[in-house]
């Protein structure tokens, strides 16, 4: 089972574009109530899950206040083995243009107050972060985007900030010097939590704007960067979001045709060997 984790713009997409909605429910977890989870059946006949990270109608919950643990736990509870997320970061590199797709291969964590682990007050959670993102999902994303003829950047470092405020120009200069290419607020702690439950996690980004200080955006009351883009670039960003259903459906066909052979499925194996956990993942907590 695959969970599609929708980011910015997901709340505007009609779920029927992905297929027939079989059910929708929120999952009670030890960490609170998850966002609504949908089970969908595609026209090709395969079933998958969908969850919108920020809400159902608009940007209802900002990144620092998303219940990431409940959402990732709910994905596991519903049978997901792989999570494919999308997100709309800003670009810190001129060559990463608004509307471009990027398949990041690394990240830098500048969040501060989030719940990073399921295993509070336990001797669990020492999990390697190399590779950061599932190599099989990244390879499948490259295959699909290439086949569809969409331009994309096959790698990049995502800097995750706390939010909900946007970054200062000086912070962006610092992130660039540290090797950052993109800046956003959502991939942490999702990717870390997925690893703790031995789930694959990969992401594709669409660039929404240039980060603060990269381009001379003037302040305009009532709008953020996307409202300051030239109309041609705004159309490219909107087009990038509108393609997500077809990209995700094609991606799932590729992933469902392959068994998992990546490191993600064995991230907790050392604890099994030591006898600290068993096969019942719910007992790990």
Task: Give short descriptive properties of this protein.
285 residues, alpha/beta, Rossmann fold, 8-stranded mixed sheet, 5-stranded mixed sheet, 8 helices, 15 strands, 21% strand, globular
Short description:
The protein has 285 residues and is an alpha/beta fold.
Descriptive overview:
The protein is an alpha/beta fold. The chain has a single domain, classed as 3-Layer(aba) Sandwich (Rossmann fold), CATH 3.40.50.1580. 27% of the residues lie in helices and 21% in strands. It has eight helices and 15 strands. The chain has helices at residues 68-77, 135-148, 169-177, 187-196, 225-228, 231-242, 244-256, 269-273, and strands at residues 2-6, 20-25, 28-29, 32-33, 37-41, 47-52, 82-87, 90-91, 101-102, 106-110, 152-153, 157-161, 182-184, 200-206, 209-210. The strands form three sheets. An eight-stranded mixed sheet has the order 2-5-6-1-7-14-9-11, with helices on both faces. It has a five-stranded mixed sheet with strand order 10-12-13-8-15, with no helix packed on it. Strands 3-4 form a two-stranded antiparallel ribbon. A hairpin with a 2-residue loop joins β3 (28-29) and β4. α1 packs parallel to α4 (187-196) and α2 (135-148) crosses α7 (244-256). It starts with a strand and ends in a 12-residue tail after the last helix. The relative contact order is 0.19.
């Amino acid at each position: 089972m695959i969970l599609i984790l929708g980011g910015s713009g997901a709340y505007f997409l009609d779920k029927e574009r992905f297929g027939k909605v079989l059910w929708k429910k929120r999952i009670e977890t030890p960490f609170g109530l998850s966002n609504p989870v949908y089970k969908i059946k595609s026209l090709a006949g395969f079933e998958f899950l969908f969850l919108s990270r920020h809400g159902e109608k608009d940007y209802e919950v900002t990144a620092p206040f998303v219940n990431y643990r409940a959402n990732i736990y709910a994905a596991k509870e519903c049978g997901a083995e792989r999570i494919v997320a999308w997100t709309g970061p800003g670009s810190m590199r001129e060559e990463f243009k608004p509307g471009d797709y990027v398949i990041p291969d690394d990240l830098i964590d500048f969040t501060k107050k989030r719940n990073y682990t399921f295993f509070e007050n336990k001797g669990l959670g020492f999990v390697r972060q190399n590779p950061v993102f599932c190599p099989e999902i990244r390879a499948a994303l490259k295959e699909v985007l290439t086949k569809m003829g969409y331009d994309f950047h096959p790698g990049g470092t995502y800097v995750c900030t706390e939010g909900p405020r946007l970054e200062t120009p000086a912070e962006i200069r610092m992130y660039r010097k540290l090797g950052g290419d993109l800046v956003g607020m959502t991939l942490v702690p999702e990717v870390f939590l997925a690893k703790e439950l031995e789930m694959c996690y990969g992401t594709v980004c669409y660039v929404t704007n240039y980060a603060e200080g990269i381009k001379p955006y003037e302040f305009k009351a009532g709008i953020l960067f996307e409202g300051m883009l030239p109309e041609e670039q705004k159309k490219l960003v909107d087009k990038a979001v509108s393609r997500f259903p077809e990209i995700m459906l094609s991606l799932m066909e590729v992933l469902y045709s392959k068994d998992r052979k990546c490191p993600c499925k064995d991230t907790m194996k050392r604890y099994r060997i030591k006898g600290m956990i068993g096969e019942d993942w719910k007992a790990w907590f």
